[in-house]
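Researcher: Before we compare anything, I want clean individual predictions. No alignment, no superposition, just each chain on its own. First chain goes here; please echo the sequence and then give the structure tokens.
Model: Echoing the first chain and its structure:
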Amino acid sequence: MVSEMGLEPTWCEPYEPESYASTNFATQTFYIDFIINKYITYIFFYYNLVMLFDILNKKYKLYYFCTAIVKHCNLNCKYCDHFSPLADVEFKDVKQLEKEFKQIKKIIELEKIGIMGGEPLLHPDLVQILNTTKMIFPETQILLVTNGILLDKLSDDFWITCNRNKVGILISKLNIKINTDEIKKKIRQFNVMATYYGADSNEYKKMYKPVLDLNGQQCIEEMHEKCWQNKGKCNYYENGKLYKCSIAGNIDSFNKFFGKNLEITKKDYIDIYKTNFRKIEEYFNNPIDFCRYCNLNAIKYDLDWEISKKDISEWTM
């Protein structure tokens, strides 16, 4: 039939578009690349998820912070950087403190905690506060900072609590009259850790005068660099806010008493209910706005202890 039509017979190879072998190889390569990219995407997503979880749940390691369970004091030292001579009579609620400490435990790994004031021995629920603190922070050392005036008058329950919870008592050695013999007797009787604070056994504690710039004209970076509170020695907790500066944390008493407005901004503290590891780390590595109110170039040291006259010049030029 073909010959009759004048056509020469030809041999046709089976149809393979671009050759079957090369097409199959390209297809396999495509799927391999697809699978690799898919798993890289999964790994990247998983890695970021882990990092996010770590940021949200990792605890920041903090050496120390203190908190005032009372704002007022029975001594009222001149130059007090907690402004206790100016403070209202105020006692920290135990249940509220427990709630706040439990929240802090979620975000902070704490080595030492200072229970102070004002004068902490004025708090009627001091024993309960010490027990609650140890319950929440079982691995944290508790330090009770006091002027010592009331120590010889406290019940045995207080001393037993200090022994059981390994509370260290730090007594500010001021030039005042306290019943040292009776206090030492109690310390030995109940095997409680206690020492003088701010001076050795042969000297009285000297005071320093913080100098506030009421106009806030100081260089923030310079003051932050010079400040010893920047070294983590004076971290302060108050009402849901963690400060790196005890002066900033207590400035409300100064403002109220003298009718001033040394402003606290959101950059001056950590909100314990709205934070994570990264935010805390950034906060402690940078200056705060309140630094502008501290004139560290005018600060005075080695001053004799005196009773405050509640004059604004005790904290200003």
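Researcher: Okay. Second chain, same rules.
Model: Second chain and its structure:
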Amino acid sequence: MEAAALTQCAPGCWAFTQPPGGWFLNNAGLIPGRRRALVVDSLATAALERDFLVRTQPIIRLETGLIVVNTHSHADHVYGNALLPPSAIVVAHPVAAAEITRIGLALAFDTPQVEWGDIAIRTPDVMVADQIEVDLGDTTVSVLHLGPGHTRGDLVVWHEATRTLYSGDLVMSQVTPFFLSGSPLAARATLERLRSLRPVTIVPGHGVVGGPGLLEANITYLDELLRTAAELACSSLAPHQIRSHPGIVVPSGWVDPERHFVNLYAALCDLSPEIYGAQVDHRVAMELLGPMRLDPRLTVKSDL
């Protein structure tokens, strides 16, 4: 099990990674400036968030001038908001902000085996429906909504000076994407817009930091996913039959491959909503997914 690490991934840009990046082991980012610092996402549990905040103390002052961008509404990217300094400004897409408020701590109640710690819901302060430029004092960062994909309210953070992209879960690194609350078809279009930025460094939502190859790997996955879904739609395959269908090949070498079955279901909803519905049925999706395989870091009490 690789340890979490805070490393400089480009001049003035930092990435906090938690290999291998499976369930609830998301990445975070940090871009410190002269007047304020920008943080990308918080972490899933109180222990993980405290670890991240402690590691950033030599780089920034957390008491003032902190802007935190939640790239989307999922628990592993927002539960740590509660441990941020009161002066921090939390930014999210309006759809994500509404979901954070509506869903609350439901995932924590549904997964008591996770040692969540003293988490609470802290709702965003600022909504970004399109884009904003954030002046950190000696560098500028863009917060962009380039379209839905992983969820209906995804944001990315773009540091043009170094061509560094903090993608949230729109891009994964050696981790299977997940579209339970998103759209593979929309994600494919959004990744094309990300590609047009021509990033040099990509900090994915989960997994190791990489370059443009990460984006290309996710695009290739989506193209194959949509192709397979189109073939399945022609056969009118029922959603609950996806997991047992002999013609479905689960991608190998990526963490949490069982997500592929849910992704196929989501793609079927995209391509044939008149048959499968406009959105996935959560109950059916959970049956396709099966039990979550959780990292020991999430289920063992921590002294952090």
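Researcher: What stands out in the second chain?
Model: The mean pLDDT is 94. Additionally, The first strand starts at residue 5 and ends at 10.
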